[in-house]
Amino acid sequence: MKWFWIAAGAFAVLVLAMFVVGWLLPEKHHASRQATFRASPETLWALITEVDAFPSWRSDVKTVQRLPDRDGRPVWVEEGSSGRITLAVERSDAPRLLVLRIADPDLPFGGTWTYEIRPSTNGSTLTITEDGEIYNPLFRVMSRFVFGYESTMAAYLKAADTRLANSR
Questions:
Q1: Residue 37 has pLDDT above 90, yes or no
Q2: How far apart are CA 61 and CA 55, in angstroms?
Q3: What's the per-residue H, E or C state across 4-20?
């Protein structure tokens, strides 16, 4: 029984330390990743804006539910490995710029993803920039030190590359 209390105490100290570190980390962060694809800007634009097709190429998205447009711009719910996330198009300038906002105030995180497409020598370069906010201090620690701010963007870019390679 003594070892149980030692383990429970150590766990409590660890959680408390994580909470304190998370409290000291900034709520907002900025992260960016980019990749070059052998696809035209128009082809890349079609891939990232055909919301209903996301489950066919993004393993983190199981279903997509379209919602009524807001201010004439698309809104949808992605359901997958991160739970249910409502996204809204904040700005769109085809085929160069797309800004999405997490549109669910009840989530423990929020912010925007900005997709910038530029023509390149062999196709297009896609840069994804996340301006995120993590409200829960424990989630801040996990995002900063375990998952990394760029891991979701890296997985997205890899999935896009695989999808484009398979469609040639």
A1: yes
A2: 5
A3: HHHHHHHHHHHHHHHHH
Of the candidates 119, 145, 115, which has an alpha carbon nearest to the alpha carbon of residue 29?
145
In the three-class reduction of DSSP (H, G, I as helix; E, B as strand; rest coil), residue 124 is classed as strand
How many whole angstroms separate alpha carbon 49 and alpha carbon 126? 13
Residue 39, CA atoms < 13 Å, CB-side half-sphere: 24
Domains identified in the chain and CATH numbers? 2-166 (3.30.530.20)
Which amino acid would we find at residue 73? R
pTM (predicted TM-score): 0.88
- Give Dmax (Cα) for the chain: 67
For range 137-153, the mean pLDDT: 86
What average pLDDT does the chain have?
Answer: 91
Q: In which residue are the tokens 């999935």 written?
A: 159
